[in-house]
Design a protein that fits this description.
Layout lengths: L2 H34 L17 H4 L10 H32 L5 H12 L3 H14 L6 H26 L2 H9 L4 H12 L1 H17 L2 H6 L8 H4 L12 H21 L1 H12 L2
Helix pairs in contact: 1-12, 3-6, 3-9, 3-12, 4-6, 6-9, 7-8, 9-13
Length: 278
């Protein structure tokens, strides 16, 4: 077989594989979109004969003592707060560890990451017992602090590699030019680490956005639940599922995360490329 024919077969095989993958992931998404407009939504894959927006409009109707739209707002607040706090603490910690290294630093960070690999369900009960003992259950503040603590090891590990790659000479030159150490950090080092900071912020946002177990154990009021927990309220008793509202809610639930990704995509791509090269 000639080399040209073999190359063509490889291209055809690759295209066929990609089409299969696209169909595998695209078909459920297409069903989700179609069902959100179908007045008689069901598990069947079908095009609605009379599309409607009633499922989207119905998201403002309460389920229990909370509306689905409230859960999405809760998720935005919790995810943004967790991502911001995680990034702030990780930036300060990683910068300090790179400029003033500690003994056994690498081993300590690795131990934290290994500890974080423990499934959330294993940590949820001890965390709930501890928060109950100090009277901090059913609190957004508690949830943000707990999630920040769980995400922080990964965030510090990522940002440490960025700050370590930025030569100290840049800061020293800035100090010689008349800047103070904090000013040199803010004006020189921090902008150079922007891709890594964006990566950490998005990582923390997405982890909090999709977390289910920890919010269930910490938050006792359904009105305070994030959307990741609120999804389960669409599954009724005796196996009944409101497929239409569930589909509409799932689509709205996905939009904020997609918007956040698109806004910081430029920095994220640079950040992931830098990580891959190290």
């Amino acid at each position: 077989m000639q080399a040209g024919s073999l190359a063509n077969l490889q291209v055809i095989a690759l295209v066929a594989f990609l089409l299969i993958v696209a169909l595998f992931f695209g078909a459920p998404l297409l069903w989700l979109v179609l069902s959100s407009f179908d007045p008689n939504a069901s598990p069947e894959f079908k095009v609605p004969s009379s599309p409607t927006l009633s499922h989207y409009l119905g998201l403002n109707r309460p389920i229990g003592n909370a509306t689905p739209l409230r859960w999405i707002v809760n998720s935005i607040i919790l995810s943004a707060a967790t991502a911001t706090l995680t990034t702030l603490v990780a930036v300060l910690s990683a910068y300090t560890l790179t400029r003033h290294p500690l003994r056994w630093q690498k081993g300590f960070i690795t131990l934290l990451v290994v500890f974080r690999l423990t499934p959330s369900i294993v940590l949820a009960v001890p965390v709930m017992v501890l928060l109950r003992a100090v009277g901090m259950l059913n609190s957004y503040t508690s949830l943000v602090i707990v999630m920040t603590a769980l995400i922080l090891p990964f965030a510090i590990m990522i940002l440490e590699s960025y700050f370590r790659a930025i030569p100290v000479d840049y800061e020293e030159a800035a100090v010689i030019d008349g800047l103070s150490r904090p000013e040199a950090f803010l004006r020189i080092t921090l902008p150079l680490a922007a891709p890594g900071i964006a990566t950490v912020w998005l990582l923390a946002f997405v982890i909090m956005w999709s977390e289910f177990v920890i919010p269930v154990f910490i938050l006792g009021d359904p009105a305070k639940y994030p959307a990741s927990v609120g999804l389960w309220f669409f599954f009724g008793e005796h196996g009944r599922v409101d497929y239409g509202r569930l589909s509409a809610f799932s689509i709205l639930y996905s939009i904020p995360a997609v918007i956040v990704f698109l806004v910081i995509r430029k920095h994220l791509e640079r950040g992931l490329a830098a990580l891959a090269s190290r």
